[in-house]
Amino acid sequence: MGIIQNHRVPDDLFERLKTRLGLSGLVEIVAAIGYWTFVAATLNTFEVAAKRSLRMDFPPKGTAAVPNVVTASFPQRGPRRKLAPH
């Protein structure tokens, strides 16, 4: 069991990760996991579906550049759940 199921990690795993990544690296990976869990929960709650065509242009092999997302779109109809006005 890990951070996503329990929202915690065992002490031995924490120490191994801290040794391998350093404290700042461990903080960054935990923050990234938390952020993407938040994004997934939000998209799932409102049943937002991505269009199936997502294409990424990857940089040439051996370079450290980040991939460029070329096509990513959401359906024009919006979320499937109706939100009641306040």
Q: Can you tell me about this structure?
A:
It is a single chain. This protein has 86 residues and is mainly alpha-helical. The chain contains two helices and two strands, in the order H-H-E-E. 0% of the residues are buried.
What strand line-up does the widest sheet have?
Answer: 1-2
Beta-strand content: 5-15%
Order of helices and strands: HHEE
Helical fraction: 40-55%
Task: Quote the average pLDDT.
Answer: 76
Category from helices, strands and their pairing: mainly alpha
Number of strands: 2
Distance between the termini: 40 Å
The largest pleated sheet is described as: 2 strands, antiparallel
Looking at this protein, list some descriptive labels.
86 residues; mainly alpha; 2 helices
Secondary structure: elements and pairs:
Blueprint: H1 3-6, H2 11-45, E1 55-57, E2 68-71
Antiparallel strand pairs: 1-2
Task: Give a short summary of the structure.
By secondary structure, the protein is mainly alpha-helical. Helices cover 45% and strands 8% of the residues.
